[in-house]
Amino acid sequence: MGRLISGWYRLLYSALRTPVLKWLFLPRFKALQLSVSPGHGWQESGEFFPASPAVVSRSQTLGEDLVVAEPETFPAVTWSLWSHASVTNNRFFGFLLHGDQFMIQPRRTPGPWRLSYRKNRVLWSSGDKVLVDRNRGHRMHVDRAIFLGGRDFTNWYHWLVDGLPQLHMANRLPEHLRDYPVIVPEQIFRYPTMLDALELFKGHRDMIVMPEWALLEADSLVWIDPLELSNLPKQQGPSPLDSRLHLLHRDGMESYRDVYLEAYAPQEVTPHRKLFLARDTKRRSYNQEEALEVAKEFGFEACYPEKLTLAEQVQVFREAKYLMGPSGAGFAGLLFCQPGTSALCWQDTRIRSMTILPDLATLNHAEYWHIFYTSDESGGLFRSNYTLDPQWLRQSLHTWLD
């Protein structure tokens, strides 16, 4: 059945490339060519940061030899102004529609990519060919706007590292573009800490609240490249365990991080606390209380980042000498940590090469170590329940702290 559906969409794509059918179906379906920012057809463009050495790390396993990452270059970080363009607020990746172009943010490695089809109007894709249904979901129209691309704004890490840095750079746009309203995904209004972070960078701008899965058309739209590069949408070629998953732009991320430090941590502090990053375990259950009791034997205290204000998060991560806990957005606070801080994270053994969180530690000249557990595989890579062996955890802490 999947092949039949794919074949039908491939046929529709080819048909829409002919002038008559393109005109007939234009209000709904569009056959587009995939491109990567800065794409083609912009009215005006500029550069925030030139190409420069990237923050790049490798997954370090506790007890094994250190793996040194090869130096890499982060491409120039640019902005561009588009006339009569459409953008989408979806959970997986942001894209821009302009003419016959389907444009995504710069990627970590070359394509072809496999685009996700879930609730984002993408019906079918193959190589650089993309078929889009413009009538799916809510549609909006505005005169002008600044778009924050990125993915999964319900996740604190992605809002902190993937979305808001673009608004930070928007404050450096040319004067005639700087006061454009900013498109804000509606899902962040569920989270007070996300709104606190937004206020640091929004300034006097108006907000355009965009429902999830909506398509917004703007007469004049500013697109901003990210300060992180990932390999999403997932590539069809390399294995999901390919370590080339992530890069950060050092100068850009340092300037962005310093806004938080100037606002919430202007005084120097010596790292001294040992923090166990605890969380609500409804999404992915594990024996957290038992693990916490083991951690307390080594002087650790429980810390629930999701219950802290933004100011409190910045402060506790500045004070942390040691951090331990399960892989997840709780470790996003590594953005605020100090050189020499050391983190120990347990991760599903099926995900051994992810460097999204280690790169934040590397940005601040801190350490990040992995230990691996085996889950029951009940809910996929990021939702499966698991149980930590207390003795295994106790021995891991001995190895780490010694």
TrEMBL record:
<dbReference type="Pfam" id="PF04577">
    <property type="entry name" value="Glyco_transf_61"/>
</dbReference>
<dbReference type="GO" id="GO:0016757">
    <property type="term" value="F:glycosyltransferase activity"/>
</dbReference>
<keyword id="KW-0808">Transferase</keyword>
<feature type="domain" description="Glycosyltransferase 61 catalytic">
    <location>
        <begin position="156"/>
        <end position="342"/>
    </location>
</feature>
<keyword id="KW-0325">Glycoprotein</keyword>
<protein>
    <submittedName>
        <fullName>Glycosyltransferase</fullName>
    </submittedName>
</protein>
<dbReference type="InterPro" id="IPR049625">
    <property type="entry name" value="Glyco_transf_61_cat"/>
</dbReference>
<keyword id="KW-0328">Glycosyltransferase</keyword>
<dbReference type="InterPro" id="IPR007657">
    <property type="entry name" value="Glycosyltransferase_61"/>
</dbReference>
